[in-house]
Design a protein that fits this description.
The protein has 8 helices and 2 strands. It is mainly alpha-helical. α3 packs antiparallel against α4 and α5 packs antiparallel against α6. The longest helix is centred in the C-terminal third of the chain and has 16 residues. The N terminus is likely disordered.
Length: 172
């Protein structure tokens, strides 16, 4: 296994060097475990774990940890394209990052994802993103999904997200 550091060009003008040995080892272990097996079992838990481990790299490109308005606009446009892609992994990760940016512009597309996505994982990711953004339209959509979604699992998760929002336990 190769344990060399990975160079990432995050902000377009600066190269940051990150030691990703732990993350790359984890990803390689997951890949090795899944070789020869069907990939349909590789779902939300592994994706969420990977996103949790890599979320910190999002703002690392600029010294102050902030992104200019022009950069944020480009990033949000790309993430909105990811939501519309139809690829479950891309949709889920795009929703996660839109929530981190608290993009109010993404509320309507995330509401569409919550209502129209075919799989539970995508709908749950959309609900969580809407709660994290905190816009009243999105919070209302999550509350409605907690009562009316076809999937019991999605209803339960939406109810938990909505209750956490009401208790002030979201990272707003």
């Amino acid at each position: 296994m190769n344990n060399t550091p990975l160079s990432l060009n995050i902000s377009g003008n600066t190269n940051k060097l990150f030691e990703l040995n732990g993350i790359s080892n984890l990803v390689m272990q997951i890949i090795n475990i899944k070789r020869g097996q069907e990939m349909k079992n590789f779902t939300l838990p592994f994706l969420l774990l990977f996103l949790l481990l890599t979320t910190g790299f999002l703002h690392a490109g600029s010294p102050s940890g902030s992104v200019s308005a022009a950069q944020k606009d480009v990033i949000v446009k790309s993430l909105l394209n990811g939501i519309a892609s139809g690829n479950m992994g891309l949709m889920v990760s795009s929703a996660q990052f839109l929530a981190e940016y608290k993009s109010v512009r993404s509320v309507i597309p995330l509401m569409e994802m919550l209502h129209e996505a075919e799989n539970e994982e995508s709908r749950i990711a959309a609900a969580l993103a809407l709660i994290k953004i905190g816009d009243s339209r999105g919070v209302f959509a999550v509350r409605q999904a907690a009562h009316f979604d076809d999937s019991e699992h999605v209803r339960n998760m939406c109810m938990k997200f909505y209750c956490a929002y009401l208790c002030g336990k979201t990272d707003q």
